[in-house]
């Protein structure tokens, strides 16, 4: 074990080595200094080794904690990304379902409001206004006919087969009424042969009544459809649950 006197002997040597590293090679220690130097190294060696070991252990512990924190953060990010992806999917699904609902609602409403034009000899002012509105409704139905068919066929993937079947019936009634209106308007625009006025007017009246009966039946269906049936069958699919992702 090194004594205080030994340390006093070693200090000048260490000082010389620090100022001139080659001293240890060109100025060998005296036997007494050599013994003191070895004793001193034996005394402090375990302490230095212990300090280095502790330093490395502390460093590894801190690194381990940092890696654990990073791992937890990555897990949190992965969960958040999963929630965001699910929210996005749910929103896209809602938008597609609502697009189908909205179009069928608008088509049923416009077609229900659609009425046959008045005869040319009836009130001209009222006839003109009604014809403008009917032309607007008919244009909407014709412009969106293909889209309604497409959304109706694709509804099986958004709502299921039962809803698709009901939307198919609604589509059939909407297009059927539009055809009936066109046919009835064509009859009312046709000139009546004045040489056989009574018989021809009577025949047209009977034909018109047949169209009007069919149109009335379609109107009953359409009103029931957009007021009750459509909200009833699509409502459960249009309810949005709270988002999973948090701000």
Descriptive report:
The protein has 247 residues and is mostly helical. It contains seven helices and no strands. Helix 5 (145-158) runs antiparallel to helix 6. The two termini are 66 Å apart.
SS strand fraction:
under 5%
Helix percent band: over 70%
User: What is the alpha-carbon Rg in Å?
Assistant: 47 Å
How would you characterize the largest beta sheet?
Answer: none
**Mean model confidence by pLDDT:** 78
Count of individual helical segments:
7
Number of strands: 0
**Oligomerization category of the chains in this entry:** single chain
Overall shape: it is: rod-shaped
Order of helices and strands: HHHHHHH
Secondary-structure map with pairings?
Blueprint: H1 4-19, H2 23-26, H3 31-113, H4 124-143, H5 145-158, H6 161-189, H7 197-234
């Amino acid at each position: 074990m090194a004594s205080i006197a030994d340390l006093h002997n070693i200090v000048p040597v260490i000082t010389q080595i620090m100022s001139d590293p080659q001293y240890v090679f060109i100025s060998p220690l005296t036997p007494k200094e050599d013994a003191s130097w070895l004793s001193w190294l034996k005394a402090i060696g375990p302490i230095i080794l212990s300090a280095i070991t502790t330093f490395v252990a502390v460093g590894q512990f801190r690194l381990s904690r940092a890696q654990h924190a990073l791992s937890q953060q990555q897990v949190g990010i992965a969960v958040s990304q999963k929630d965001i992806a699910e929210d996005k999917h749910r929103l896209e699904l809602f938008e597609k379902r609502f697009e189908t609902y909205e179009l069928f609602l608008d088509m049923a409403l416009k077609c229900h409001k659609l009425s046959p034009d008045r005869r040319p000899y009836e009130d001209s002012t009222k006839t003109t206004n009604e014809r403008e509105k009917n032309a607007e409704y008919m244009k909407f139905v014709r412009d969106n006919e293909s889209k309604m068919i497409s959304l109706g066929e694709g509804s099986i993937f958004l709502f299921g087969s039962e809803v698709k079947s009901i939307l198919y019936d609604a589509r059939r009634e909407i297009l059927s009424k539009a055809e009936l209106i066109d046919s009835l308007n064509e009859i009312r625009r046709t000139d009546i042969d004045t040489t056989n006025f009574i018989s021809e007017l009577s025949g047209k009246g009977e034909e018109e009544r047949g169209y009007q009966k069919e149109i009335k039946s379609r109107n009953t269906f359409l009103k029931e459809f957009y007021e009750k049936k459509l909200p009833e069958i699509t409502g459960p699919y249009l309810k949005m649950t709270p988002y999973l992702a948090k701000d």
